[in-house]
Write a structure and sequence with these properties.
The chain has 111 residues and is α+β, with helices and mostly antiparallel strands. The chain has two domains: 1-64, no CATH class; 69-111, no CATH class. 32% of the residues lie in helices and 14% in strands. It has a two-stranded antiparallel sheet with strand order 1-2. A hairpin with a 2-residue loop joins strand 1 and strand 2. The radius of gyration is 15 Å and the shape is globular.
């Protein structure tokens, strides 16, 4: 879903799924990500979820209230999802968010 400040976030929903990439991070990488995700200013917060039974660091919107998609945010997310071979139905969900934000219909073409 899209949080109040216009960026994607995850929320508990047993009927939904999230597709992503797992990275192995150093502490220095985590500090850099904390700065990028604006932890100190309260844009995102750190949390841990289980992925295949193992804890994984995630960054969640500090305000998960549904919001409007920030212009230019989702296009590179969709392009990367396509490049990484994410399932087409998941990519279509992302495209649906974009089309609702722009008022157009989702495209069936790749990004």
């Amino acid at each position: 879903m899209v949080g109040q400040r216009g960026y994607g976030t995850i929320v508990p929903d047993q009927s939904a799924r999230v597709v992503g990439v797992l990275w192995s991070l150093t502490l220095a990488c985590e500090r850099t990500l904390d700065a990028f995700e604006e932890i100190e200013s309260g844009l995102f917060r750190r949390d841990s979820i289980l992925v295949a039974g193992e804890p994984a660091l995630v960054y969640l919107a500090a305000d998960p209230t549904p919001g409007r998609l920030r212009a230019g945010y989702l296009e590179p997310v969709i392009a990367d999802a396509v490049a990484r071979g994410f399932p087409e139905d998941y990519v279509q969900v992302l495209r649906g968010w974009l089309s609702r934000a722009s008022g157009s219909r989702p495209s069936s073409r790749g990004s």
